[in-house]
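User: Sequence recovery, please. Input:
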């Protein structure tokens, strides 16, 4: 079922145009949108936060979708601050995209705003189609770097390689990403199935776009010789070897965290999981840390955007939510166990164990490559499926 769902984002353009059920075949493709400029963000010329709050209170409520359960805590904080009922709904990004598109086509919108990890679908489909739009709070505009305006970057999160500190007290047993392609680590990497996880697929396409040199250098450092890739690039060679080394695929980061760091764990494994699951160290007594020093990166960062449904029935409440999430008071609930706000004045609040240098330890998503991520997603999906043992 998960492998069927991965096709939904690619089909959404046809869905919006035809107003029918999703299709994996004909329709408008992402490539046809590539030459069209992305609609810019809107900024209210005569912005007043007090006026916005008053208008939002008249609307009375709003619904915000997010792929993280942290949205429930954001909703509680928002309601407590403004007295406006906010419902935060945890929903996987592909399902949120499909629902927003269907609601827009039917003029029956229930989702007022969404937090989006899948930047490719946002800039390649939802915004160009008019399903969603970007709004930047005028009073915060100068605090948000210009490159974060369109679409509006709420925060950056990360997926990292993690290990059990109790089972490996001397540090991470994996020192290089190529280690995970070796027979000794066959069946010992636990990760979400990329076919159901857009951020991992985007990581793969971004690696191919601007990570090949780092992978080649890491290979040279490990084996003492240059990589002779049989595939189109070092990135595809690494993906092929990783997928063929029998990784254990799950449907959630919580499952990965349990397999790696739970007190009952007895076998050394490496997890490729969200840093949000480091909360389990305190909440559940887990023993987890990022693989500090792993070459050429410990994991990857990915952007999380915020967008408003174009036909929202609570547009002022949706704008107020955007304003809230772009402040420390709002985003701290999303940052959780680590992350960086899109507002440059908000300092990082938490440093996950083993990830002291956010900028230097991670492979970073290039926002200029978001559309390329969407266009190349099917290629890398098929490549993973072909090589996964």
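Assistant: Recovered sequence (389 residues):
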């Amino acid at each position: 079922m998960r492998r069927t769902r991965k096709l939904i984002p690619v089909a959404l353009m046809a869905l919006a145009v035809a107003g029918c059920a999703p299709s994996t075949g004909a329709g408008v493709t992402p490539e046809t949108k590539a030459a069209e400029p992305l609609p810019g963000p809107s900024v209210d010329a005569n912005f007043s936060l007090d006026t916005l709050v008053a208008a939002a209170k008249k609307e009375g409520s709003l619904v915000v979708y997010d792929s993280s359960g942290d949205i429930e805590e954001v909703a509680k904080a928002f309601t407590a601050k403004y007295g406006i009922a906010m419902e935060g709904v945890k929903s996987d990004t592909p399902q949120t995209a499909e629902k927003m598109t269907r609601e827009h086509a039917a003029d029956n919108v229930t989702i007022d705003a969404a937090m989006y990890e899948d930047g490719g679908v946002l800039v390649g489909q939802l915004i160009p189609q008019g399903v969603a739009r970007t709004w930047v709070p005028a009073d915060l505009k100068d605090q948000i770097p210009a490159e974060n305006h369109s679409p509006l970057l709420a925060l950056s999160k990360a997926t990292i390689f993690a290990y059990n500190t109790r089972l490996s007290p001397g540090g991470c047993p994996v020192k290089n990403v190529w280690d995970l392609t070796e027979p000794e680590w066959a069946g010992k990497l636990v990760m979400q199935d990329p076919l159901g996880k857009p951020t991992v697929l985007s990581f793969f396409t971004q690696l191919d776009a601007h990570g090949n040199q780092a992978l080649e250098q890491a290979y040279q450092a490990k084996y003492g010789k240059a990589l002779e890739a049989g595939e189109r690039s070092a990135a595809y060679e690494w993906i092929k070897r990783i997928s063929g080394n029998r990784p254990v695929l799950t449907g959630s980061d919580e499952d990965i965290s349990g397999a790696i760091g739970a007190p009952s764990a007895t076998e050394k494994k490496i997890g490729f999981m969200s840093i949000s699951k480091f909360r389990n160290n305190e909440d559940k007594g887990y023993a987890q840390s990022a693989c500090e020093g792993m070459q050429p990166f410990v994991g990857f960062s990915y952007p999380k955007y915020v967008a408003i449904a174009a036909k929202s029935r609570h547009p002022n409440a949706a704008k107020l939510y955007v304003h809230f999430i772009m402040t420390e008071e709002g985003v701290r609930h999303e940052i959780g166990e680590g992350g960086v706000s899109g507002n440059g004045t908000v300092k990082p609040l938490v440093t996950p164990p083993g990830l002291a240098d956010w900028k230097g330890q991670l492979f970073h998503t290039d926002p200029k490559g978001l559309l390329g991520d969407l266009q190349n997603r099917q290629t890398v999906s098929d490549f993973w499926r072909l090589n996964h043992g």
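Residues 1-35 have pLDDT under 50 and may be disordered.
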